[in-house]
Amino acid sequence: MHPDEPPAWTPPPAEPGRPRQVRRILKLFRPYRGRLAVVGLLVGAASLVSVATPFLLKEILDTAIPEGRTGLLSLLALGMIVGAVLTSVFGVLQTLISTTVGQRVMHDLRTAVYDRLQRMSLAFFTRTRTGEVQSRIANDIGGMQATVTSTATSLVSNLTSVVATIIAMIALDWRLTVVTLLLLPLFVWISRRVGNERKRITTERQKQMAAMAATVTESLSVSGILLGRTMGRADSLTKSFAGESEQLVDLEVRSSMAGRWRMAVITVVMAAMPAVIYWTAGMAFQLGGPSVSIGTLVAFVSLQQGLFRPTVSLLSTGVQIQTSLALFQRIFEYLDLPVDITEPEHPVRLGQVKGEIRFEKVAFRYDDRSGPVLDGIDITVPAGGSLAVVGPTGAGKSTLGYLVPRLYDVTEGRVTLDGVNVRDLDFDTLARAVGVVSQETYLFHASVADNLRFAKPDATDEELHAAARAAQIHDHILSLPDGYETVVGERGHRFSGGEKQRLAIARTILRDPPVLILDEATSALDTRTEHAVQEAIDALSADRTTITIAHRLSTVRGADQIVVLDSGRALERGTHEELLARNGRYASLVRRDARLEPTR
């Protein structure tokens, strides 16, 4: 991280108002409203069938059995069986459709978050832990699976069942219906309290899961293992992870138990309600009130149980929704990240790129709170020319190079490619025109061939071999047991630093960009390896516009021009001989480099 760069990224303020967030969630389902309409029809049909069953039972008890009408009894019994079959079929179909819709919504969310992160500037990733990013995509979206896949169906199904059941209960006996509905407000109040409590705990739990994921990503990578073992910190890291896991255990238990006693009260009350109905009907009969037939009483209790089940499910769905709001909020934070590097509405597309680069009064800072990283930079690199940028650590050298491919955007001034502002170019033109080889070589956990073809997916084997020969790595690849199909290992740790650099150079050669940014590509190598890599770089740089960010000055003496940066300003510029003759800052750096060279 650059010393002037601000600390870790913090999420933007939450959206004001829950209704707006709910509308935003509902908008996710809009592309699938046709399928959801079918689900609604299935739900409505299932609710009508289930409500009809108690009426059939009433007729069996009050008419068919007392009157000995076996034909009617058989017909009513068959109707109950058919109703059960239809309800099951409708349930399977609605589950299939709703689950498909839910998974598509989750796919859309994952893709949208990944796409947004792909368009973020390099500065965002230098301020954000990798594990945090992974946790948002995996844990947060994964945690919403049950809600997204079943909530819409459950909401419609239970709401329809509740309304239909209440209407049926009123048709049977309105007085018993009033007794039943008196307790519903209590149920609603309890469920809202439980939902708010679980939402708060869920927010804490997801933050802890993100922190633990970041710890795992950092400490269990190849580099993390090497650091932990060589520093004797393996036990300490294990204890630290155990502490974070212990906090997660506590949050998981609290999340699971939140509101359990309150919901248990609802369960007890619901179990007692049939007894209350029987007692109410019996007391009304004893006191001379209107009697209720056995069939009506049994049918009513059946409907009552049919009311309570979807009511509790509806309340549980409300709790799930409140819990999921915390997860949705974390996802929306990423979807709302401002993309500061965007393609213009009408981008310029260059055909044949010559490669002239100009920095015109360029200034850059990471944000309004940090100081300038670059200030007043004016440099021209002719097409096919070479520029070396040297200076102390933190001088802004890498930042200057990264402005060309728009890994960062200038704060003031402009950077041009063949006279066109790079901010006016389409991303494809920039990607084709500018290649970057950095000190931090990244290789995927895949074969050598797959890593090379990342630059050019349709490259032939002959093209791979030619690029590898130019990078002086072909013979080494052939010496491996599986040749070009050898898996490089996590982050390429099966290869030495010099071998990884040459693979990166071969990958860039394969892409064949007219402009090349070399960001301290040999600074971490020993002198012998550096010499081999430098030969590969020389082959890569031939006939290309090259900007070399240099730590070792021995690699830049042949550059057409050398610029000395310090604190973001260009202090000196000229050829190697011209700058030595001035006996200024560059000459001082050369003398320092000469003193350090024997120790390398």
TrEMBL record:
Location of the protein in the cell: Cell inner membrane
Keywords: ATP-binding, Cell inner membrane, Cell membrane, Membrane, Nucleotide-binding, Transmembrane, Transmembrane helix, Transport
Signal peptide residue numbers: none
One biological process term in Gene Ontology: oligopeptide export from mitochondrion
Broad class of the protein's primary localization: membrane
Ranges where the ABC transporter domain occurs: 357-592
Ranges of residues in domain ABC transmembrane type-1: 37-323
InterPro entries per the UniProt record, alphabetical: AAA+_ATPase, ABC1_TM_dom, ABC1_TM_sf, ABC_transporter-like_ATP-bd, ABC_transporter-like_CS, P-loop_NTPase, Type_1_exporter
Organism: Streptomyces ruber
Domain of life: Bacteria
UniProt-listed PANTHER family: ABC TRANSPORTER B FAMILY MEMBER 28, ATP-DEPENDENT PERMEASE MDL1, MITOCHONDRIAL
Protein name listed in UniProt: Multidrug ABC transporter ATP-binding protein
Transmembrane spans: 36-57, 69-97, 162-190, 263-281
Similarity field: Belongs to the ABC transporter superfamily. Siderophore-Fe(3+) uptake transporter (SIUT) (TC 3.A.1.21) family.
Any Gene Ontology CC annotation: plasma membrane
A Pfam family this chain is assigned to: ABC_tran
Keyword Glycoprotein: no
Membrane topology type: Multi-pass membrane protein
A GO molecular function held by the record: ATP hydrolysis activity
